[in-house]
Design a protein that fits this description.
Layout (H helix, E strand, L loop, with lengths): L7 E5 L3 H12 L3 E5 L3 H9 L5 E3 L4 H6 L2 E4 L3 H11 L8 E4 L8 H7 L5 E2 L1 E5 L19 E5 L6 H14 L3 E4 L2 H24 L12 H6 L7 H10 L1 H23 L3 H26 L1
Parallel strand pairs: 1-2, 1-4, 2-3, 4-5, 5-6, 8-9
Antiparallel strand pairs: 7-8
Helix pairs in contact: 7-10
Length: about 290
């Protein structure tokens, strides 16, 4: 199943990621439609050649014209949309998503879809500290990872199509994980890191910090400017996996705390060496992606 240039895309939810998808696809010559809630976002997307046509209503013509539909919605809204409007999707259409959690939605949505419509989940590991289609920039995909998240209900063709979509969008790496493994990995790599950044920013309210900070603090807290509505939903949707990672992190932080408290420099240095060795693997991966 190849995504030739005659295929038509529909983006449902024209925010930052939806806009980035639209931008990347239009650059490759695809026809792109959009359905979203605000007319100003449709107007902006048309004026800036991100989409060919859009609507703030459930437009049966746009839905029926699409070969591939990308849902860029919060998890609960995604499920509600499919429940209310899934019957409008034509047989033969493939749908995918950008949702940050999987096991709590994938199976439910697959079960709701009518025969002949296939949902193959995906997670673009990319984002910015701003929201809205006006901030769309498909260059965020260039050094990012893209995860295809199939279940046993998915066909080989749909999985290959979704992998190809990641390549078309310009992601540096495309990989495959099942929903449960995905949620385990995301709990550590994405959700825990946001928890740490939020906790750090909430730990000190000294207004003068901004005048003294350096790059290390800026780098560590970049993701602390956070969409509270979206991320609180993602945290709770992946609650069990996230709590496990938070508990492991808390134990490791407590171990470092005890090293400092007890002047245990050797154990402290041992932890730092482990940290450096593990981080170096990411540096090598980043360099190889640029070759």
């Amino acid at each position: 199943m190849k995504i030739d240039v005659t295929k038509k895309f529909l983006i449902v939810g024209l925010g930052l990621l939806g806009g980035c998808y639209a931008m990347a696809l239009k650059k490759k010559g695809y026809t792109v439609y959009a359905i979203t809630k605000d007319q100003k976002d449709i107007d902006y997307a048309i004026e800036n050649n991100l989409i060919d046509e859009g609507s703030v209503h459930i437009d049966e013509k746009l839905i029926g014209s699409a070969d591939i539909i990308v849902f860029a919605l919060y998890p609960h809204i995604f499920k509600e949309w499919i429940k209310e409007n899934g019957h409008l999707i034509n047989q033969g259409t493939v749908i995918t998503d950008v949702t940050g959690v999987k096991s709590c939605i994938v199976y439910e949505i697959q079960a709701m879809l009518k025969k002949g419509v296939e949902f193959i989940a995906a997670h673009p590991m990319a984002g910015r500290e701003v929201s809205g289609v006006q901030n769309s920039d498909d260059s965020i995909f260039k050094e990012a990872n893209y995860i295809v998240v199939p279940t046993e209900n998915n066909t080989f063709g749909a999985i290959e199509l979704c992998k190809e979509l990641g390549e078309i969008l310009g992601f540096a790496s495309v990989s495959v994980l099942d929903p449960e493994k995905h949620d385990e990995m995301i709990a550590f790599l994405s959700q825990l890191t946001h928890c740490i950044a939020v906790s750090l920013m909430c730990a000190n309210d000294n207004p003068g910090l901004v005048f003294y900070t350096g790059d290390s603090f800026r780098d560590l807290t970049r993701i602390a400017k956070i969409n509270d509505e979206m991320w609180s939903e993602l945290f709770l949707a992946n609650k069990d996996a996230l709590l496990k990672e938070m508990d492991k992190y808390r134990k490791t932080f407590d171990k470092l705390y005890e090293c400092v408290k007890n002047n245990d420099r050797e154990e402290m240095r041992s932890m730092m060496r482990i940290s450096s060795e593990r981080r170096d693997k990411f540096n090598k991966k980043e360099k190889s992606d640029l070759l």
